[in-house]
Amino acid sequence: MELRQLTYFLQVCQDGSLLRASEHVFITQQALSKSISSLEQELGEALFERTPRGLVLTEAGQVMQSLAQTVINDLDTLTNTMREFHSVNSNRITFGISSGLQHFISMNELYQFANTIPGLSLHVEEVQTDICIDMIRKGKLTAAMTNGTLDVPELVNMNLLNRNRIAIVNKHSPLARREQISIRDLKGESLALNINNHCYSRFCALCEKENIQPQVFRIGDTSTMFELCNDQGYLGISVDYLLQRSWPGWKHIVAIPMDPDEFTYPVNLVISRSRYHYKVVKQFIRYIRDTVQANNTPGPALPFDFAVGG
């Protein structure tokens, strides 16, 4: 049984005539008669009685008419709902951005894009990387800009740029004389980290590889991390672009590059695979990429002395 047969059957019910029905469904009377006969053979029931007044539904035909109309109505509802869904979603973008990445693209720049597309609705919210990924999977976000190494096969992952991580070292530490800090150098250090869950998991895996059990105090903001490193001798891990901000003159800390082959800071764009091919989403992706790369200015030379460069 095919949907086309149900459509033909319902048209015959409405017109009471094979000839009139065939004109409405744009097939020959012979082809329509053959379709109805095939349907009757499949069901094992006659659907119409031929009378001088035309075709009249049998009892089986009346049951069939009710059920077939329900199927066609449900199909129309499905079709219209999906068309409406496509229309709404093809002109709506929900975008997540991980904390700190506003350095590379601002809210104003995002909404400038929205203003160039008539009818586009753009909603932006700041969300942690692991939550961003979950929201894209559930269809709550179209895309998100995240940091940290990602491997999410069911989503489209695009690397926008890579920045270097830096170690914030107290000048009284022997590590302050290093030109570069590696993971193995962190053994025995008290660490103050302002780092999201995704990157923290990656960091712990790297420490485990070097047989290090890190002593970590996780905090919520970079300024507090700098203060702990400056005043209490903690070692912190940050990102080089943050040194472009104006910081107070911390006298007792320096920023030293970390080994880029060990623990880089990738900035990624993660996109819903089901939305990736929408025209407006492709335009948005291109705009994000171009804007982020244009805003990717070099950080200051390392090592960086806060007392001098801050």
Number of domains: 3
Radius of gyration: 32 Å
Q: How does the major sheet shape up?
A: 6 strands, mixed
What is the class of the largest domain in the CATH system?
A: Alpha Beta
Q: How many β-strand runs?
A: 13
The general outline is elongated
Give structural notes.
Helices cover 42% and strands 21% of the residues. It is of the alpha/beta class and 310 residues long. It has three domains: 3-88, Winged helix-like DNA-binding domain superfamily/Winged helix DNA-binding domain (Arc Repressor Mutant, subunit A, Orthogonal Bundle); 90-161 and 266-294, D-Maltodextrin-Binding Protein, domain 2, CATH 3.40.190; 163-264 and 300-309, D-Maltodextrin-Binding Protein, domain 2, CATH 3.40.190.290. A six-stranded mixed β-sheet has the order 9-8-10-7-11-13. A five-stranded mixed β-sheet has the order 4-3-5-12-6, with helices on both faces. A two-stranded antiparallel sheet has the order 1-2. Strand 1 (48-51) and strand 2 form a beta hairpin. Helix 1 crosses helix 2, helix 1 packs across helix 4 and helix 2 packs across helix 3 (29-43). The longest helix has 31 residues, at 59-89. The termini are far apart. The mean pLDDT is 88.
Summarize the helices and strands and which ones pair or pack:
Blueprint lengths: L2 H13 L2 H8 L3 H15 L4 E4 L2 E4 L1 H31 L2 E6 L9 H9 L5 E6 L2 H9 L5 E5 L8 E8 L1 E6 L19 E4 L3 H13 L5 E4 L3 H11 L2 E5 L13 E5 L7 E7 L7 H16 L9 E2 H4 L1
Helix pairs in contact: 1-2, 1-4, 2-3
